[in-house]
Structure formats: structure tokens, C-alpha cells
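Protein modeling request. Please complete all fields; requests missing the sequence field cannot be processed.
Requester role: graduate student
Desired output: 3D structure, C-alpha cell encoding
Chains: 1
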Amino acid sequence: MVFELLLLRQVFLLAGAGAAAYTDARTGLILDKITYPMIAAGILLNLFEQQWLWLGIGLAVFVLGYVIYYMGKFGGGDVKLFTGIAFLLPFYQNGFFLLNTLFAACLLGIAFYSVYFVAKYVRKGIDWKENRRGLLNAVIFGLGIAGYLAGMTAMEAFAWQTAVVLAFPLMLALVFLAFEKGIRKSFFLKKVKLGKLEEDEVVAAEFLEAKAKKALGMNLKGVLGDKEIEKLKKAGVKEVPVFRGMPPFGPFIFLGSVVAMLLPDLFGLLFV
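Delivered output (272 residues):
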């Protein structure tokens, strides 16, 4: 019975994550009709098995994910997908499945998008002056990461192979960080009239005019809702810079979940 329930959880998870990866890659959306059944199935299975801790973890992931979404750092569909995964299978074979999934997804996503967008930006033409701050941040973080990896390896906290595995995507991430502002401006920045804003647009805060910043206040949300749009209208703001067409993360969440199932002790393999 226990094995059958575990298999059911895995089927729901992989089917949902796979469907989300497909729709996200095709349309840039992770649909509620995919994530809500995952969440519902996880809650029902946890109630049936009296997995109160797993219910708590799922709820905590949703709350934390919503905060990150509120700040404009994570898509709403991604939050619901991770919530579904958290309810269905937070742990697997004594490993923290959810954390392994997130870790693997981030490594894979960083590696792919860093190469793709930096190469695209190079072909378009790099504005070095515009990216001066990003380059400085990348150098600072790079020195810190190099020192950390070297120190941990010297203390034998993890093997040198682990340092190499971690260093590769982190180096790519630093390259992306160096040119992030230029990449965002070149490929995702759009100026949209208030009347044509879509639901929960991600505002490009660094490109906002002073009048718009004042109207929105210091505690700026990452997404624009009805209240924020009304404030902008009263301030006489006619259009707002937003980020559209952001790259999908759903495919990497699916790949991360597959990796986490194949390597349930991922953290143990890397850090022990």
C-alpha cells in the first residue's frame, strides 16, 4: 500500500511537471488546470496518510513563494508548481526532494540561459558603460565564490570534484550577472500604456521615471496590480516599463525533479 501511494505521488508529480514544462516552453504560461490538481492530489494524499509535516511544508512553500512572486522575482505559475511538488513529495528516499529539485533546476537553468542570452547579447553588441555596475558586482561575487570553494576544498568539507561541479554553473551565472541589465533591457524591456497592462505585470523598477516611483512609493511591489495602476493614473503616468517574455523556468523544474528522483541523495553526493 505504501509503495502504491508513493508511486501515485510520483506519477502525479512527473505528469504535472512535464505538462507544465510543455506549456511554459510553448506559451510562457504554467496553467492552473495543471498545478491545481497537483496541489489537490498532494493535500488529499497527505490527509489520507496523515502526513501533517508534509502538509506544513507545502503551505510554507506556498507562502514563501508568494512573497518572492510579490517582489516580482518568480512567476505565479512557478510558485504553484513548486507548491504542488512540495505537497506531493517534499522528501524522497531520505533526501530532501524539493530542495534537490530546486537546486538541480537552478543549476541547469543558469547554465543554459547564461550561455544563450550572453551569446545573443554579444551578437547584438555589448554596452560596456551600461553594464559597468554589473561587471563590478560579478568581480566581487566571483572573488567571494572562488575563496569559498577554495576554502571548503582545503578544509575537505567537500571533494574537489564538487567544487568543479559547482564552479561551472556559478561562473556562467557571474557572466550573466555582469551583463544582466543590458540583457534585460535589450530582450525583455517593454514600455506599455496603462490601459494595455496585463494582469500582474513585472515592473522594470530600475527603468521607472521619478514621477512613477514617487506615485508607487518606496515599498515597491515587483508586480503591478489594480491599486498600483490607479496610483499611476492619478499621478499622470501614461506608460510603464515592464519585463515581458521572460524565459520559462518550467522545463528546468521538470528536469530538476527527474534529477532529484534519479539522485535522491544529490546534496550528499556533492557535499559529503
